[in-house]
Give the backbone structure.
Amino acid sequence: MNKKQNGWKRILAIRGMGQVITVGIGLVVMCIVFGIINPTFFSSKNVANLLRQIAPILLIGIGQSYVLITGNIDLSIGSVVGMSCMISATLMTKGMNPWVAVVITLICCLIVGVVNGGLVAKCKLPPFIATLGTMTIARGIAQIVNNNYNTDAIGDKAKVFRDFFYYGKVAGIYNTVLIAMVLWLVFNFLLSKTRTGRHIYAIGSNIEASKLSGVNIILTTTKAYLVSAFCACVVGLVICATSGMGTMDAGNSYEMYAVAASVIGGVSTLGGQGILIGTVIGASIWGVLQNGLQFAGAPVAIRNIVIGVIVVVSVLIDVIVRSGRFSKKSH
Amino acid sequence: MDSQNIVEIEHMMKSFPGVKALDDVSFSLRAGEVMALLGENGAGKSTLMKILSGVYQKDEGIIRVFDQEIREMTTQKATELGIAIIHQELNMCQHLSVAENIFLGKEKVKNLMLSQKEMNQEAAAILGRLNIDLDPATIVGSLAVSKQQMVEIAKALSVNAKILIMDEPTSALTSKEINDLFTIIRKLKSEGCGIVYISHRLEELKHIVDRVTIMRDGRYITAIDFDQNRMDEIISHMVGREIKEKFPRVTCRKGKKILEVKNLNAGRLVRDINLELYEGEIVGIAGLMGAGRTETTRAIFGVDEKQSGQIFLDGREIRIHNATDAIEAGIVLAPEDRKKDGLCTKLSIRDNIALPNLDILCSRLGVVNRKKEQEMTRKAVESLRIKLASPDADAGSLSGGNQQKVVVGKWLARDSRVVIFDEPTRGIDVAAKVEIYHLMNELKKQGIGVLFVSSEMPEIMGISDRILVMCDGRITGEMEAAGATQDKILKYATQFESKIS
């Protein structure tokens, strides 16, 4: 009993957990409301589908959260998703072994991460501008790999690829969901328990102090952009596996979905703050709203408006709560 | 005492674009001594120490540490040699805990994982040794500035420093904390540490300092054994001329009442404040850190919300809901934290001076009159003797003292009735201080009410005509400067309400 209480205390003591819990309650309420409007919302088929919808948002959310916590932003995410989708599909339609194609795709995407990190940390470009540039470049690459056409179907040889990233199931859970869960565990560990993670928070909190304390700013920033590029790459592969072909505009405006998932979950766009469990909640709210509003029969336009309002309100609540906390601080 | 030199710097040269920061500077430090490094702002003290600690790279010159010549000093190399530096600006990660800040860049890792527990324990031990009462798990951003400064000190000492450089360590500390710090310094000294101590608070020197090195305009002037009786000599070395009066005073006839604040309440640190301000006087507000002085000035100026209270200007009640109201009524505030509240460091000096005066400078359509703007800047620069390359340079490129002058200067261009200064001389050198005092006296002569907050008692007693003392959000005492003593002020400043009611 006592041990259990201590466990709770420890969880509550985690920085940023307060907001995550608030938003988590919001998520639960939202699910209940959608369940009442349309009970099939809770059908096992829909839940499985819903989780599979959330998974890619969670993945890009993880990447964006990493970058946001360093105090930067990555606008190239969506284009890297497109690049990953197009490069892998093109290679596979040419008959390449799917796994070799995946490795090559991954390398290409990680190069974007390195370039982002270099431009921002080494060349000191404002991250908004630097990644705006790489965003356009990466989209261009996505278009050029197959001469400005979407690819044909990636074919039978790629069935194992499509199963691995999308259609397969293990223990009744879709592979996409499992991939997202495993990567979440890995990146959560990296962020909360390792030196690199600590440095990511530190440079987002005070870059000057970190520099003077001997933290390698360029390396740490680049690592964050690498995580972001890696996550985007995986999402691109998932999209390729889903549709069985490469589409040039895959991942369009995903970078903003990623910002939304992070911010709803309590990651600060100013850096230094946020935990990945928050990103899970943020991505889930995003997915539940999309799915639930669709079930409730709301048209796309209404869905967009509602989601936009939710993003603003969730950050607004945080700002209000925080200003309250700061006035307490002066006591 | 061991008189062996542990640090020797010879013929050090360093240039920044457009400025020669160090010109043939020599410096030495012995084991077990506290060496004060003195000089005005921009004399090159911080630059020299940043080179010694590897933050900057030297252009030319020799650095020897423990008789070993160091050709290329990096921050890492400096840490290995046992050189630790406490920087002038607070350099804390606000979102991280005390322990995390102390171990930043040198985290303890076991099997890839951070060993948080071990770091917390070790941080607690370090804090305990320094007599700092803090929980290592506290988030630094929730601590008062003075506590953050103590964390900074703990961080520097966590590496077993043999050579400790302190750049203005006391500017944000309360007197008790300064005492604690001095105890720590004495202890380190007895353990054989060499300490370089940079401070503008000359009155502190007598407590800890053994020798002083004086620099001026990037050049080495002299190094002498410290002696309280040679203070005047030291100061004249620093400024290169005699400063006749540290606290120039002009006498004016006390005129009519300008400002009256009645029953002002704004949060816990501004409780039932009543004060009056007359023409021809300077009123100083003394008190300890966290007494509510800054908060009071902010509430009067309208930037913080008031719960209740009335403000009268020239006998007429005025309503101030925000800073614009205050400025229009003729009350202006030169805030405490220059970089945070006082200046747009990335804008030019001219833009900064013009910013609060755009209502005067703009035509009816809102177009800025460039000629008027230039004229206003020129006047401010001249009357305050601001040293600048060009009015179009970034405000952030100025030295601390000159930045402060810009903060003040932007308010002088308009006809104000009341000017409030919050810590106007923090972190600036003796000569610049005197210029700020002259300026306050000038305002006083013009019949403008001057209200100023300061933590330096000699300054409060030397410049103000009347002194208000605050403690815990209340005004606990009032006295004429003529009858004021440090003891009296301190007595009022520590008059806390009894906790048991």
About this structure: Chain A touches chain B at residues 13, 15, 193-195, 197-199, 201-202, 204-206, 208-210, 212-215, 272-273, 327, 329-331 (CB under 8 Å).
